Description:
This protein has a single domain, classed as LCP protein (Aminopeptidase, 3-Layer(aba) Sandwich). It has helices at residues 68-75, 118-123, 177-191, 196-219, 231-241, 270-278, 287-307, 314-327, 336-340, 344-347, 374-385; strands at residues 4-7, 18-19, 22-23, 35-37, 48-52, 61-66, 79-81, 98-106, 136-145, 152-156, 162-164, 171-173, 225-230, 244-248, 252-253, 260-261, 264-268, 328-331, 351-355, 360-364, 367-371, 429-430, 436-437. It has 438 residues and is an alpha+beta fold. It contains eleven helices and 23 strands. Helix content is 29%, strand content 22%.
Amino acid sequence: MRDDYRYRSPRAGERGGGGIGGSRGSRPRGQANVRRTRKRKPPRAAAAARIAVCLASLVVLLTSGIGWAAYRWLNHGLITSSALDALRDGGARRDGSVNVLLIGLDSRKDMNGDDLPKEFVQRELHAGSSGIGGYNTNTLILMHIPAGGGKVTAFSIPRDDYVEIAGGRGEHKIKEAYGLAKAEAASRLSAEGVRGAELEHRGREAGREATLATVQQFLGVPIDHFAEVNLLGFYDIAKVVQPVPVCLKKAVRDRYSGADFSAGPQNLDARQALSFVRQRHGLAGGDLDRTHRQQAFLSSVTYKLKSEGVWGDMGKLQGLFDVVKKDIVMDDRWNILDFARQAPNLTGGNAEFHTLPIAGFATRKGEAVNLVDRTKVRNLVQSMIGPGAPPAADSAKNGGRPGAGSAPRGRVAVPPAKAPDSAFQGPPVRMGGVPCVN
Length: 438
């Protein structure tokens, strides 16, 4: 069993104050070396949770309800990042809720920056060569988890939204924040003599910092945690979970992604699953329909794992956990025991995915982009999950059960408000089953 890597950001400065799911202690400015650390084993608890994130460019799963043995085993060997250290406070809430950013990295490289085998990328991933995709974040989902349970609300950010990139980098597609910052850092670090895996790790940290800051700046709500997975990570998790049930409104065939599916319900293996979530050519809504595919896939996988009793079976979970520890990068502040008390409704299907609206299409700097009304987007998100969102209904309506709308003692639950479906890009995708999509 290997120790976990903790990436130290070259731009991380001191930071004080408390945070949800872990303290935010100060760190020396400029500390940038990659080092191995072994996490302390926390005391025995009644329940523990873990995150199994899978996004394909793309899909992320958050899980909860596993036992103490699973928590201790999984917590030993995770790949963690300190990218949150460079993030300015965005008005952290005191209601106990949590905002998690799920990042799907469209990279055909491994954690050390080495190309994945060409034959594997073309045959299994149907994703061209390792030179395609770069370090674009083709999937960005902000997930809001209310304190004490309640409905989880998630917002998918279309990858081509034309926004201001944090750090004074000007306007670009939001997916490019990661790659732009990584390239800048790599150029600087190379000049300093940094090479190999360390150069890759530190460059990716800069990419994560820029992505987190850009999303927080765009949406106007704070980010408490994040998880990142690349193309290989999605494939590995889909391979453990397969076959995955999905449903299509009509038959599709696309040579770019390899998607070749009939209409109606069907089960997909890992290679087909990747094609399912990557297809955009031949779809009426293009990238926006692909975003709905990602949301539907997440719902379907979660539904299958719950219906088959996987969450409570350590033997069934082991293969999934092996992938999480190999392919997933998470922030180093995540307090899993605390998170276990906050996210029971996610795996129970009590979640809803929305796609943030765009104002139209245009060409900027020679590229097709989505125009966005930043004020409209921020107001929409903040009205549902921001500090001014309506308070929770009386917990007596739910029988006073924690996790059913009531918050832990000393906290005030702030569930999402209800926004009209027309405010978003297409209808919402609701967890708890196998939704049918384009």
